[in-house]
Amino acid sequence: MTFSGGFVITGTFISFLLLLTAVYGQNINDTAVRIGADAVLTCDGVTYDGVTQHWEKNPAIPIKYLVAIQTPLGQSSPGAPVYDAANIAAADLTNRFTATDDLMTATITAVKKTDDGNFRCASGPSEIRHQLITYQLTSATTNPADEGTGYIGYPFVATCSAPSDSKPTPSYNWTKQEDSSFMASGATLRFDSLTVNDTGTYVCTAYHQYASATASMQLTVSEKPTDTPTSSQGQSGDTKPTSATRTGGGIGTGGIVGIVIGVIAALILVAALVYFLLIRPPKGHGKGKEDGVESGDADVTYHATGHPGAPENMSRPPPNQPEVMYAELDLEKQPAGSRRPYVAAPDDPPTEYASIRPNKPPRSSVPHTLAPDEKSEYASVSKPGTRY
What pTM, to 2 d.p., does this model score? Predict the structure, then answer.
């Protein structure tokens, strides 16, 4: 047969096309295998042509067989299977692909996701193909898990999921036990406003055409407690405002203010005690503490030695006695009703003097002579012409 342009189709070429159609035009059998399991592929219906038979993956020309058998010249039966290590490695099947001696069965162990493909067993014009499909779907889970709590009039949301390595991607639906009329599709189960009748066990099913997995959740619907937070959030994450306010759990603003006031009052009290006990001078302080002698007597004014008008014999203490303090007493012009002594001026009536030494004096009008280690205090008073 000659076409325009000089192209000639011979009978041999037509026979070759018919052969390709017979070999590669047959139907393909889908073979689904769970990832991790073993795939067993059969060569049923294929008749050995007495020359060669083989298995290949994703058929192509030239043929890249995984394993083959053939009958040697001059013999009537085929020899042992011959594996092509390069083609097996290219298909990621090293140490996982085996076949029986007659190639009627091929096995792939520990199937991987990458094992998907078209596996063909052929001998002459006879063949069978397996479209290997790997899948995975091990489990399903709900959120909330196992149990969920909802409130009348409030929304509620639950979700269903499968592991991320699921293959192919699963679909989801929800059913309710003991309620055949309930059906919801999709991974999310949503209630806009719960009622008591929504209480029950809900079953989520994750599925694809090769496998399925289920999980259940018990939903309990009740009246909302009065002590729930102002904004309640269910396990699903939906919120609805309420007028109730949670009580307890922590110190309020009034309590904090009371504590602060109490601390301040305690500090003030401590400061007052420190002042009165340690800082404030004793009563009478400043009325005279000279040369180590403290007066504290409101009726006597003390002066150091050398005061104008002091007796000469009192201006210098004896050598073996401490320095003498003296006080001037006005017995004539003290203001009426006053406890404070009157300090005499130079022209005032005579002033009486008292010499004062540490510690108490003996009951004697004679001054006591102090020893160096004594600390006695006494006074002697003299008037003109009289001695006490």
Answer: 0.52
